[in-house]
Structures are given as structure tokens and as C-alpha cells.
UniProtKB/TrEMBL annotation:
Naturally occurring in which organism (per UniProt): Paramoeba aestuarina
UniProt ARM repeat ranges: 17-59
Transport among keywords: yes
InterPro entries tied to this protein: ARM-like, ARM-type_fold, Arm_3, Armadillo
Keywords: Protein transport, Transport
SUPFAM superfamilies, per database record: ARM repeat (SSF48371)
Pfam families: Arm, Arm_3
Protein name, UniProt field: Importin subunit alpha
UniProt keyword Protein transport present: yes
PROSITE patterns: ARM_REPEAT (PS50176)
UniProt record, GO biological process: protein transport
Amino acid sequence: SNLCRGKPSPYICYVRQALPMAVHLLAHPDEEVATDAAWALSYISDSTEDRINMVLDAGVVPTMIQFLAHPAYQIAAIRTIGNIVAGNDLQTQVIVDAGALANFHQLLGSPKRSVRKETLWTISNIAAGTLAQIQAVIESGLLPLVIQQLNATEADVRKEATWAVSNIAISGDSQQAQHLLNFDIIPALCENLSLHDTKVTIVALDTLEKLLQIGRHQVDMANSLNEGGGFLPEDANPVVKLVIECGGLAKIDDLQGHRSDEIYQLSAQIIDEFFSIDEEGETLENVHTASGSFQF
């Protein structure tokens, strides 16, 4: 196991020699030996696509998925699976086709921070793939659990959850991104704007911007189909309403004073594009919620 870890990675000729033994030891009756073998595979797969292919060709995916149900092996198994889906789309598809997503529900309910963090990282990698792979994540029923982890007490878990939902929103099509709005995602995303992590703040802002665009598109679509008049106003955007109600607008407004120029630019752009300005230059804090509104 230790011979396979570290950077730079061992020469591939040595990896080829070690891999069959690591695979063989996965079935060893000694739990510690099997765990070390699983970690060796995680180290080998934490590298280039050709090394990921070596792990896949060794046929270890079914065993790694079985290991997800065993506490002693969980971390090494989910790390190996996560490394594989960090490869190319074809490598990711092997994991999806093997049914790994169905095993992630119990992992997201784990009391162990590391298990939830690694699982969310793996889901975010799958969600960065093809539209079909994003759809597989949605159809697996994992979204409510992922969004729940946006409210986790551990900052690193919330960070990975933010990446996961962001990849669905940004990399997915409009219907897939809209699916996020079926859950209580806006308050959680807005809360994560307060995490003292510049990258997470940018990711959360990007995600909010995409969801705000979807809300605006829904208003535009409703108006285009309403031939009898009674058009919805711009502030009928339900995502705008949700952002204001949870205090998110105030957080976005505060970010205009952030030391990061990218955060400043993005927060200013969101306010300018989606939140009305009255005659005195104040951001709008009230939206119409009566007839001029609709819900997802």
C-alpha cells in the first residue's frame, strides 16, 4: 500500500507488478490486509487515465462497491471510486453502470464526516460528466441528501455539497438544473455565502446565478404562452423571491465589498441583473407574491 502512494506516482512498470497482488488481497480474510489492499488501489487510481484504466481492467469495481457497505473498507472504497470518476467520461460511466449510486444513500447518512465528504466529492465528479451521468445522479434520488449536506456542521462537507449541486446546475441542462429547485436549496446556498472560503463563495454565487436565470426563463415562458394578457412582472421570478426571503440578497450585497475582485464582480452582476433598483438606488427588498407569481 505505501509503495503505491505519494507523488510522483511509482513507475507504471512497478504498478503493473503490484496491481494483481493488491487485487488478490482484497479477498484476504484478515480485515487489515484487505483494507490495505483497497488503499493501494486508491493510490494507484489517484493518477492518470491510463492508470485508472489499469484498475478498471483489473475488475475491482464490483468489489469496491461491495466494500461500501463495510465500515472498515468504506473510505478506501469510496476514494477509489471517486478517483475513477475523476477520470474521463467513459471511466465514470463504468461506475454508473455498475450501480454505485444506489449505495451512496447510506454513505450520506453516515455519522463520519470523512465518509460524507468523500461521497459528496465522488457525486460532484459524476455530476461534472455527461448529461446522462447527471441524470443518473438525479434519478438515483440522491439530491435531497446532497442538498441536506449543504447545511452540515462541517465546513469541508458543505464545500463538497456546494460543488456537487453546482456541477448539476452549471453542467446540466435547464431541466436538470431546475430539478434542484424542487428542494430547499436556495436558503442553504445563500447560507454558504458566509463560508470563509473564496472558491466556495464563487461556486455558490455561480450556482445562484444559474438558478436565478432559470427562474427568469420560467417567467418568460409563462408570458410567451399567455396570449390573453395579464403578463407576469419581472419580479415574479420565484428564485428572486426565495433569495430575498432567506436573507440572501443582503449577503450578496455585502459581498460587493469582498477583497476578491471576482466575488465583487459576480455579486454586483447578480444584483444588477436580477434585483430591481428603485429611484433612490436601493436594492429591492420586496417582491410581488400575489397573482404576479408562481412556484416551481
